[in-house]
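User: Please run a holo structure prediction.
Assistant: Happy to. Please share the sequence and the ligand.
User: Here you go; the ligand is calcium ion.
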Amino acid sequence: MTNIVTLCVKYVHIAFMKILVIEDEKKIANLLQKGLREQGYNVDISHDGNDGLERAGTTPYEAIILDIMLPGRDGLSVLRKLRERKVTTPVMILTARGEVNERVEGLNAGADDYLAKPFAMDELIARLRALMRRVTGENISFYKVADLTINLVNREVMRGNRKIVLTGREFRLLEHLMRSPEQVLTRTQIIERVWEYHFDPGTNLVDVYIQRLRRKVDDGEEVKLIQTVRGVGYAIKPE
Ligand code: CA
């Protein structure tokens, strides 16, 4: 009995899930549509960047699968525009194999995951599910910058497969940096948000904590994420 109820709830839930596929290669778009429909999702297809952007901005989708090379407007530009407009729908980008730069750029531009072409439908569906679970469950409790993730619920911080152990204050500092990736936070802003001082204690507190964080997050990593913006403050982004 319980199982039947669970199954019904699951079915109803999925039946309302709408996914937008922005992909100009008709063969791939059709394959995606077929595969996703078989799983019970509603699928809209767009073959053009501008049209995709328009749809994504006007229809509430559960997720967007976004190709990079598109006519009209490329995928990265679609993604940036969406994030600029505060559309937070999870986005999975599709990249050609080996396009490391685009992958990194895509993640920086606000993609939640990526998949290299050619991909297996099973993998795409599994990753898409994980992505939607992650994002719908906790819109504001999970942040990702490049391969660094912070989970505000279980307080787990990961750099790739490496687990990072932080003190309470270090965690708050990282959390605030990751809440607004690429944006420079001034020392004053950091002091206010992390220490809740509404004055400048005139110490190098922030710098000391940034150094500690850097050691844990960036030491031994090829790509450094915690950036000093001289004379202004700090930002988190791939260098
Ligand atoms: Ca394409």
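The chain has two domains: 9-136, 142-236.
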